[in-house]
Amino acid sequence: MPLIPEEPQIHESAQGPRATPASGRTAPTPRPVPGPRPAAPPRPGRPGPHRPTPPVQRTSRDTAAATPGPSGPAAPAAPVAASATPQIQLIPASVEGALDAAEEAVDLLLDSGRAPGDVLVITTGEQHPWAAHELSFGEASYWAQHDAGDDVFYTDAAVASRAATRPVVVVAVNGGPAAAAATALPLAHARAGALLIVCGDPQQINSVLGAGV
Questions:
Q1: Strand, helix or coil at 170?
Q2: What is the distance of C-alpha 57 from the center of its chain?
Q3: CA 168 → CA 37, 116, 159, 183, distances in Å?
Q4: Among 38, 36, 31, 37, which residue's Cα sits nearest to residue 8?
């Protein structure tokens, strides 16, 4: 079902302001809401491509309490099932501002305690500068960093199908071919384990996600 950008779907435990751009002017980049976090403590990541990695502060996921049986020892706690469908958050942004909005989303996620390796960023148009720089050393080195899984990884829609699932996927709809967003958004939805953040034109995003997920 299409999302309404003024009232994005937000998990009841998430906190953070929402913003809607005023008509006729460029609105400040809305701040995304951090999504739920996995239980396992992350491996420390190396400094990110755009900022030093902040200290990771994690909280353990509550587990289900064991229920005593009528005539025997307590049964083991049932595992907590992962959500099959990620939360989706829409950050309204222009084509020119989509990458900046995605960068701010990543910053807020890391500041909130997300591990760098939890985050995958996909661009539909111009590559993120980090991806362009790392690809200059060759694809083998570039994808080795993806496989290490200890830092934010940036890729573009043309090769995003090679990326593995991560808890959080951020998409910057920053131009590119007309079919780029139509391909990237359903793929990003499939790759996002807990939270999908999409930065771009709300009408375009809703038309793609409404039909594709």
A1: strand
A2: 18
A3: 9, 10, 18, 18
A4: 31
Q: What torsion, rounded to 10 degrees, do the Cα atoms 106, 111, 116, 119 define? A: -40
Contacting residues for 67 by C-beta, under 8 A, at least 6 apart: 74, 75
Residue 8: closest CA among 89, 108, 85: 89
3-state secondary structure of 193: strand
Residue that wins the pLDDT comparison between 5 and 182: 182
Give me the chain's average pLDDT, please: 74
Q: Which of the 8 DSSP states describes residue 68?
A: B
127: which 2 tokens?
């590559």
CA distance 14 to 12: 6
Whether 175 and 149 have beta carbons less than 8 Å apart is answered as no
CA 58 – CA 37 distance, rounded (Å): 8
pLDDT of residue 211: 59
The DSSP-derived string for 73-140 is SBPPPPPPPPPSS-EEEEEE--TTTHHHHHHHHHHHHHHTT--GGGEEEEESSSPPHHHHHHHTT-HH
